[in-house]
User: Fold Phenylacetate--CoA ligase from Candidatus Afipia apatlaquensis.
Amino acid sequence: VLAGQSPCGRTNMRIKGWMGRADQTTKVKGMFVRPEQIAEIGKRHPELGRLRLVVTRDRETDAMTLSAETATPADALRDAVASTLRAVTKLSGDVTFVSPGSLPNDGKAISDERKND
Assistant:
């Protein structure tokens, strides 16, 4: 909301303008990735805790990294989660394991860290 009166004289509240997406849906490599898809990966692998998909850009290419909390990281589990990520999102991405409690508990499933130039 913008403070002050409109230059045209109207006295109602004025909105600042479009500030971006209202949800966490993100477009990666031309495909939409939704938080429900990340939740589906978690359902298929109950040994995982919180999940966070981080989207970055390396030069002109989008990259996805799924960070997953687990107490028992293993290469076989990493391969299985990467396969599930590919099956659910139709996109390939890296999988990294972090210790339980290290991902923020802010309700976000997708973090888009690409810079909009």
User: Anything to note?
Assistant: Residues 72 and 114 are 30 Å apart (CA to CA). The chain has a mean pLDDT of 90. The beta strands are 26-28, 31-33, 51-58, 61-69, 94-98, 110-112.
